[in-house]
Amino acid sequence: MTKSYLLLYNGVSALLWTYILYHCLIDISNGYHSFEPGHGTPHKFMIATQLFNSSFEFLHSVFGLVPTPIPTLLLQSFARLIILVGICYVIPESPANYNIFTFAGLTLAWSITEIIRYGFYVLKLGKFTVPYSILWLRYSAFFILYPLGLVCESATVYNSYEVIESRLPRYSKFLKYALPLYIPGFLYLYSYMIKQRGKVLRREKEKLI
């Protein structure tokens, strides 16, 4: 039952992020101006998807359904929710929400990362043969996607700071101290993935010997 549930969860999550990637590419082709200030909350679907993933994956870790450490999950969720809830939802008029270079960049980084990750687990849980190329991609794409996400996330917060400071001065102080935490948080996640990559790929090579 647990494997069936996780297979369903990962399959649904992969589809959700594929939908997000698809619409991001359409937005980029249209100049990324599908949202304009004063027309509601931008990126609603991505906000809902990330809240869904963050909530369920925290519970999965707490109840031992997956081996992912809770600090790793919290760091990933914290960084993304600062953007999606703290900026898209709280400050929808921020120009950073529809910047083709920063917000589109972080959307690409997040969605491609999640499509690879959830797709990999679908193959693994579904007892399909996982090609080495997919395994390698799962544990190597982060070398590019994580730094891209870091730069774009930081730029999105920075470009929203002036709007936040004028509207919510106390919240702007929180972001002022939260933004520097991106660096140690990024280093923790990056080093964690490097260690995981070494373990998994080494184990896979040993199977081939």
Automatic annotation (TrEMBL):
**What EC number(s) are associated with this protein in UniProt?**
4.2.1.134
A GO cellular component annotation in the UniProt record = endoplasmic reticulum membrane
Keywords of this entry = Endoplasmic reticulum, Fatty acid biosynthesis, Fatty acid metabolism, Lipid biosynthesis, Lipid metabolism, Lyase, Membrane, Transmembrane, Transmembrane helix
Q: Which InterPro entries match?
A: Tyr_Pase-like_PTPLA (IPR007482)
User: What GO molecular functions are on record for this protein?
Assistant: very-long-chain (3R)-3-hydroxyacyl-CoA dehydratase activity
Q: How is this protein positioned relative to the membrane?
A: Multi-pass membrane protein
Transmembrane feature ranges: 7-25, 98-123, 135-157, 177-194
Q: Which domain of life is it from?
A: Eukaryota
Give GO BP annotations, semicolon-separated. fatty acid elongation; sphingolipid biosynthetic process; very long-chain fatty acid biosynthetic process
Q: Could you tell me what reaction this enzyme catalyses?
A: a very-long-chain (3R)-3-hydroxyacyl-CoA = a very-long-chain (2E)-enoyl-CoA + H2O
Where is this chain's protein located in or outside the cell? Endoplasmic reticulum membrane; Membrane
The record's comment on protein family reads: Belongs to the very long-chain fatty acids dehydratase HACD family.
What task does this protein carry out?
Answer: Catalyzes the third of the four reactions of the long-chain fatty acids elongation cycle. This endoplasmic reticulum-bound enzymatic process, allows the addition of two carbons to the chain of long- and very long-chain fatty acids/VLCFAs per cycle. This enzyme catalyzes the dehydration of the 3-hydroxyacyl-CoA intermediate into trans-2,3-enoyl-CoA, within each cycle of fatty acid elongation. Thereby, it participates to the production of VLCFAs of different chain lengths that are involved in multiple biological processes as precursors of membrane lipids and lipid mediators.
Name this protein carries in UniProt = Very-long-chain (3R)-3-hydroxyacyl-CoA dehydratase
**Organism listed in the record:** Candida orthopsilosis (strain 90-125)
